[in-house]
Amino acid sequence: MDAISRPLVISHRTNMGTMPENTLAGIDAAIADGVDAIEIDVRATREGVPVLLHDAGLARVAGDPRDATTLSLEELRAVRLLPKPAGAEPQGVPTLAEALARVAGRGAILVIEVKQRGVEAAVARAVTDARASEWCWIWSFDPTIGRACRAVLPEVPFGLNVSPGSLERFGERGDPVEACVRAGFAAISLNHPLVSAASVRQAHRRGLAVYTWTVDAESDIERVWRAGVDGICGNVPPLIDAVIGRTPGVTSW
């Protein structure tokens, strides 16, 4: 019987539950909440500048029908994201360099989820220019992106995001844990329904850290915590803190 350790608390898309996602204001809110890490999503503009965006299209986040990857950085600078909460000051789309500068020296890990192939070298330049290798991680669903990031930025740990069918979506098959081991990845990040004591144990035995997302229900936070994950990524970090701050129970494996 082992005591449950405290997992890292990771803010999903810069406190997406209460703030505009992937924004500098969201980074500030996550740091104010005392998170251990902040997850962001990265794509690139037309000229290849890495920016914080989950979707290629701007419709959901800005009510704009255009595809951000077809816009120049100058054009994207004019876009304002829909305010959240209602009445909050609208935010722009920051560059990765701006996000790195906002996090630097404030004690949080920046988790960069790369959403687009072909931007790995630009991401590596931004991280290197910011001297941020020691406090960044990179995640992606795409193993090809993972291998490319390992090639251009080997000092930064890479974690493979996994949801049902995600490997097949990128043309790969087999056990995700073994795929991570073969590629030299440092971690696996599981969609939370995939988390169990057995799945965590399998990954740990193969030397992988285990993270999970997007965990916003109290019962799910409790479940993945008791399964032994190393970090929990959610939209409302104070809720995660509230659950894992309770007197630890025990789990058996």
Would you mind describing this structure in some detail?
With 253 residues, the chain is of the alpha/beta class. It has 11 helices and 11 strands. It has helices at residues 24-32, 59-62, 73-77, 96-103, 120-129, 143-152, 166-169, 176-183, 197-205, 218-227, 237-244; strands at 2-3, 8-11, 37-44, 50-52, 109-114, 136-140, 158-162, 187-191, 209-213, 231-234, 250-251. Helix 1 packs parallel to helix 4 (96-103) and helix 10 (218-227) packs across helix 11 (237-244). The longest helix is centred in the middle third of the chain and has 10 residues, at 120-129. Residues 247-253 have low confidence and may be disordered.
Keywords:
11 strands; alpha/beta; 8-stranded parallel barrel; globular; 253 residues; two-stranded antiparallel sheet; disordered C terminus; 11 helices
Q: Main β-sheet: number of strands, strand sense, barrel status? A: 8 strands, parallel, barrel
The best one-word shape is: globular
The largest beta-sheet arranges its strands as 2-3-5-6-7-8-9-10
Arithmetic mean pLDDT: 94
Regarding quaternary structure, what we see is: single chain
Class inferred from helices and paired strands: alpha/beta
Fraction in helix? 25-40%
- Beta-strand level of the residues, as a percent range? 15-25%
Q: What is the H-and-E element order?
A: EEHEEHHHEHEHEHHEHEHEHE
Topology, number of strands: 11
Q: What is the number of helices?
A: 11
Radius of gyration: 18 Å
**Low-pLDDT segments:** 247-253
Distance between the termini: 7 Å
